[in-house]
Specification:
Largest interface: A-B, 23 and 33 residues
Oligomer: heterodimer
Shape of chain B: globular
CATH class of chain B: Alpha Beta
Strand order of the largest sheet of chain A: 2-1-3
CATH class of the largest domain in chain A: Mainly Alpha
Structural class of chain B: alpha/beta
Number of strands of chain A: 3
Largest sheet of chain B: 6 strands, mixed
Helix content of chain B: 25-40%
Largest sheet of chain A: 3 strands, antiparallel
Number of helices of chain B: 11
Order of helices and strands of chain B: HEEEHEEHEHHHHEHEHEEHH
Number of helices of chain A: 18
Structural class of chain A: mainly alpha
CATH topology of the largest domain in chain A: MetI-like fold
Strand order of the largest sheet of chain B: 6-7-8-3-9-10
Bound molecules: adenosine-5'-triphosphate, magnesium ion
Distance between the termini of chain A: 53 Å
Number of domains of chain B: 1
CATH superfamily of chain B: P-loop containing nucleotide triphosphate hydrolases
CATH architecture of the largest domain in chain A: Orthogonal Bundle
Helix content of chain A: 55-70%
Chain lengths: 447, 267
Amino acid sequence: MTDAPNFGPGTDAVPNRPKTSLIAEDARTKGRNAAEKRFRFYGMAAIAVGLFFLVVLAVSIVRSGIPAFTQTVVNVEFTMTEADIETAEGMLFKTKMYAQFLNTALTDQMNAKGLEVDVDEKAIQRILGKTGGIIREFYKGNPDQMGEPVAFELSASSRVDGYFKGRVTREGFVDSRFLKLSDLDLVDSLAQAGVIQQAFNWNFITGADTGVDNPGGAGIGASLVGSFFMMLVVLVLSLPIGVAASIYLEEFAPKNRFTDIIEVNISNLAAVPSIVFGILGLAVFIQFVHLPQSAPLVGGLVLTLMTLPTIIISTRASLKAVPPSIRDAALGVGASKMQAVFHHVLPLAAPGILTGTIIGLAQALGETAPLLLIGMVGFVARGYPQGFIEGFTDPNSAMPAQIYTWAARADVGFYEKAWGGIIVLLLFLLTMNIIAIILRRRFERRW
Amino acid sequence: MYDAPHMTESHVTAAADVKIAARNVQVYYGDNHAIKDVNVDIQDKTVTAFIGPSGCGKSTFLRCLNRMNDTIDVARIEGDIRIDGQDIYDKAVDPVQLRAKVGMVFQKPNPFPKSIYDNVAYGPRIHGLARNKAELDEIVERSLRRGAIWDEVKDRLNAPGTGLSGGQQQRLCIARAVATEPEILLMDEPCSALDPIATGQIEELIDELRRNYALVIVTHSMQQAARVSQKTAYFHLGNLVEYGDTTKIFTNPEDTRTENYITGRIG
Ligand SMILES: Nc1ncnc2c1ncn2[C@@H]1O[C@H](COP(=O)(O)OP(=O)(O)OP(=O)(O)O)[C@@H](O)[C@H]1O
Ligand SMILES: [Mg+2]
C-alpha cells in the first residue's frame, strides 16, 4: 500500500555521531567566539575614535568661540544737565565736549577709589573709541535723562578686548596709533578699580553685523533671524511637497519606465552639488522671476530645491518599511487606498519622515555655497527686518554665510566672532533636533 | 489539456443560489501560472472549503474573489468572476465597494498597530455603520464576541492589538472582518494558530454566519473541512481538481489526486 518513501524514525539516523561536551569548546566554536570578540573590539575602537574627534572638535569650538560671548566694557556713571549739553552743542567740535565729561567722570571715579592716574584724552580715545558721539546720541534719544545720573557701559576697542582675552600681550607689543604700551598701564589700573571689566556680550547674540573695522560690535542676531526665515520657507515648502510626492510615487504611481526614470533622477538630484542649486536659483528666482536679491525667501527657495530629494528619499524609504500586511488589512475591510495610506501607513512612517526632514533641514541650515550666488554672503546687515513679511523679503544674511564673512575678514577680532557664530549655529541645530525628537516620541507610540 | 469542459460541467451548479461564479480564471505571477483555468460556482449561505497542498494556489484564488490581487504588481488575472451576476473585474466596479461586500481574514494575522477597539471599529467607522459612540461600542462588542475573543480583551480594549498572542490576533482579525457586515467572508486558514477550544468557537461562528453569508474557508485540516463545510474544492498545482459536496469528496472522491491528498499520502 505504501509506495511513498519511508521517513520513519530509525531508518535515517546519522551513523557514528561523535559525542560532544557542552562545557569544552570545540575548535569551531572557539573560532567563532574569537571572531565575534574581534568584531566587538573593532566596533568599540571605531566608536572611541569617533568620540575622541568629537571631543576635540567640541573643545576647540568652545575654546575659540567662548570669547565672542564676552566683551570688555567700561562702566562710568555721570550726570549731564541741560545746561551742560547746551554748552556742548554750542562748541565747534560738539562731541569733544561730551568726551570731556566722560573723562572727568572717569578721573573722579578713579580718585574716589584712591588711585591717582592721569586720564589722558587721547589714551581714552584709543581705549574706548569715539565716546563723545555715543554719549551725544544717547542724550538725543533720551532727553528725559538730562540731569539724571546715567550709568554708561562703553565697549572697549578690539585691541583692549584682546588684551583682556590674552590675544594681545605686553611682550613684543609695538606701539601703534591704535594702542600704545602706556595705555595698557591705564587699562590695568582701570581694571584694578573695577571700572573696566568683562561682561556678557548680549550684542553678539542680538546684534547685526558691523563694518570691517569694528569687530567688537558685530553680532549674529540679524543673520540668525535670516536663517530662521529661510528654514521656515524650507519647512513649509519641502515637507508637504516632499511627503506628497513620496506618497504618490510609492503608493499610487504605476510602476513603469517613466516612474523609474523619475526615481533615478530624484536620487541623482540628492547628489548634485549645492552650488548648482545656487546658480539655478540665481537664474530662475532672481534674474527671471525678479525676486529681491539677498532675500531669505530666495535663499529658502533654493534650499528647498536642495532639501526636497533628501526628504523624498527618506520618506519613500520609511513608507516602504511599513509592512504590506497593514495595507492589506486596511484594504481588506474596505478602506480606499487613500484611507489605507493616511490612516495606517503614514502614521507608522511618520517617525522616519521626521528624521529625514530634520536631516534635510540641518543640511540646509549649514549650507553656504548656494547663498554665495544669491547675494547673501559678504553683506553688512542693515539690522533687523521691519516685520514678519519683510523677514522674507528684506536683504539679510544667514548664519553660515555670516560666519564665512567674518572668517574672511582681516581683523583678528572677527576670528573669535566666527567661532562664536559656529556655537550659535550648533545651538540652533540642537534646538531643531530636540524639537524633532520630541515630535518623534509623540508619533512613535507604535505598538 | 486541463480537461476544462468536463470540469465546467461538474463544478457548475444550478444558478439559483450561486453567489460567486468563476469562469476560466487564470492567474499569473509574472511568468508563474499560479491558477490554471478554474471554474467554480460558490453558493450562498454555504461554507465552501478550499483544500490542497501548500503552494497550490488556494490563497491566490481566494484573493481573486475580492480583488486583493490588484495590489500585487506582478499578478495578472484573466477570466470572469461574477458575484450576484456582476463581473467584479468590470472597469465600472470599484474594488473598495467590492471589498466592503467581500470581507477577508488573511492567512497571517495582521491587526492594525492600534488599540483593540480601534481595530474592530475601523471598518464600521469608514463605512458609517454606526451613528454614535454607543452604537459603535455595541458593534465592537458584538464582533469581538463573534470572534470568540470578547472575554479575553473586554478589560483592555485600549491595549494595542499587536500586543495579543498569535491566536488572539487571528481572532481579532476575524472580529474585524465580521464587524463590517460583509455578504461574503473569505477566511484564509483562520484557525491555523488556534487551540482546539478557540477553533471550536470559530467553527461555531462559521456555522452561525452560514445562515446569512457565503463563506469560503481555506484550511489544511481535513477534519475541519469535513466539520464546517458543505462544499469542498480540492486544488492541486493551480488546478481545481475536484469540487463538490463535502461528504462526497471525503467519502468517495473521483480523482485519485484528491483521494491521495485526503488520505494523507501527498501534501
Ligand atoms: N505575491 C506573490 N508573488 C509571486 N508569486 C506568488 C505570490 N503569492 C503567491 N505566489 C505563488 O503562487 C503560488 C500559489 O501560492 P498561494 O499563496 O496561493 O498558495 P497556497 O495554496 O495558499 O499555499 P499555502 O497553503 O502554503 O498557504 C505559489 O507557487 C507561490 O509561489
Ligand atoms: Mg495560503
